[in-house]
Backbone:
């Protein structure tokens, strides 16, 4: 029989091996980009063909002397040249488009349509060494080169490239679809290039500029979204002031993922009030704020944090934690702490959106009644801002998954409000 003393060296060896593996993973995750693909080159994992296209983009659309970066875009399965084309935008907060994306995910959204996915600068593999200095983030360059103004320029460059290749209708007009933060990016693109857009589809999204003008938060406070859960949680928050951001992340992720978000949050609030430990809700990596903060500080996530700060920064610098409990802002104070500190240290105001919404085409806004990220007031502001907009409330939450939603999207994108599929929809003012 082995004695505990004989087992000890094996345990030490195993612990040392585990530490070495973790150190290797950390070094791999946190390595800064040293180079990027040169003009005219291709990645070994993706050859250029009828569905996979490369494009040389300016590193800085406002300073062409800085050279070019190698971007790419992908055409959907069954893409048809010359017909209606939809740019399905992703804005950088979620890394969805790489050299071999999960087309099943996008087909569930727009299967049956001809759509385009654009690789986002700052997402792997298109990382820019220019946003680092001596191995550390150069926040000024990161905000400039990974900012959404650059992405709007990239989107327009792709449209022009497709027009030259005969992939678009002769008039060069496209449809634009954006959900969540990409819905704001869609608004930004249409603001700058609306003459080239036929229809605009916005889903589960908001409008930072309109909310600020109306004196509203970009994302609702918890008491406004889920009053019952907020009331149940209030005594626990008072007793655990240092855990505000951690519990906010748990509740926020439940709001995004649960089938019945408000019910799930209420159960959590009552569980904590009844003595359950917070860590029992944090076993899932997504709901663990420490894990989230670690992952988003990696170079491959820098773009996500730049866009995240663009969207919430103006509200975040004014957020008073003692007076309010806002799920998104609480977790953002941890995930974006370096960006918040950089803006305050240099006294640089966060981005102020200037979006022109005089777009003359049809705009359909789809809003889930249980959306934890955006409230109904944001959607109402959007509907009122566009001359030809309709607002459709549905029963879902932030992520609208299902064939019924795909049918609605396709009906609008193919026929607008007068289309055969879209004509059967109801457009209530508010449920």
Residues:
């Amino acid at each position: 029989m082995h004695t505990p003393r004989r087992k000890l060296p094996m345990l030490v060896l195993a612990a040392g091996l585990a530490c070495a593996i973790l150190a290797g993973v950390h070094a791999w995750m946190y390595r800064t980009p040293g180079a990027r693909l040169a003009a005219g080159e291709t990645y070994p994992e993706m050859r250029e063909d009828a569905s996979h296209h490369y494009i040389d983009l300016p590193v800085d659309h406002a300073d062409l002397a800085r050279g070019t970066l190698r971007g790419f875009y992908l055409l959907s399965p069954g893409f048809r040249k010359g017909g209606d084309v939809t740019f399905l935008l992703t804005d950088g907060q979620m890394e969805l488009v790489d050299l071999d994306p999960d087309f099943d995910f996008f087909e569930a959204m727009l299967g049956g349509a001809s759509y385009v996915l654009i690789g986002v600068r700052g997402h792997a593999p298109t990382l820019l060494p220019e946003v680092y200095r001596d191995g550390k983030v150069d926040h000024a360059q990161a905000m400039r080169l990974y900012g959404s103004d650059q992405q709007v320029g990239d989107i327009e460059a792709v449209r022009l490239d497709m027009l030259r290749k005969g992939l678009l209708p002769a008039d060069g007009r496209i449809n634009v679809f954006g959900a969540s933060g990409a819905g704001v990016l869609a608004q930004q693109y249409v603001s700058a290039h609306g003459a080239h857009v036929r229809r605009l589809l916005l889903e589960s999204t908001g409008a930072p500029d309109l909310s600020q003008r109306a004196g509203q938060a970009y994302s609702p406070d918890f008491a406004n979204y889920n009053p019952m859960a907020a009331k149940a949680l209030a005594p626990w928050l008072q007793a655990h002031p240092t855990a505000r951001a951690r519990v906010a992340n748990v509740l926020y992720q439940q709001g995004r993922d649960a089938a019945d978000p408000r019910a799930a949050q209420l159960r959590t609030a009552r569980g904590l009030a009844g003595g359950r430990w917070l860590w029992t809700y944090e076993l899932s990596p997504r709901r663990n704020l420490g894990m989230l903060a670690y992952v988003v500080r990696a170079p491959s996530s820098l773009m996500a944090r730049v866009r995240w700060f663009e969207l919430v920064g103006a509200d975040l610098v004014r957020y008073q934690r003692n007076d309010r409990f806002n799920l998104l802002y609480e977790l953002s104070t941890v995930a974006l702490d370096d960006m918040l500190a950089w803006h305050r240290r240099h006294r640089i105001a966060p981005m102020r959106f200037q979006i022109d919404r005089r777009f003359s085409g049809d705009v359909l806004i789809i809003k889930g009644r249980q959306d934890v990220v955006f409230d109904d007031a944001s959607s109402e502001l959007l509907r009122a801002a566009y001359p030809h907009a309709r607002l459709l409330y549905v029963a879902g939450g932030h992520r609208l998954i299902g064939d019924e939603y795909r049918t609605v999207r396709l009906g609008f994108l193919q026929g607008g409000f007068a289309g055969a599929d879209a004509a059967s929809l109801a457009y209530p003012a508010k449920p």
Summary: Residues 92 and 304 are 5 Å apart (CA to CA). The two ends are 71 Å apart (CA to CA).
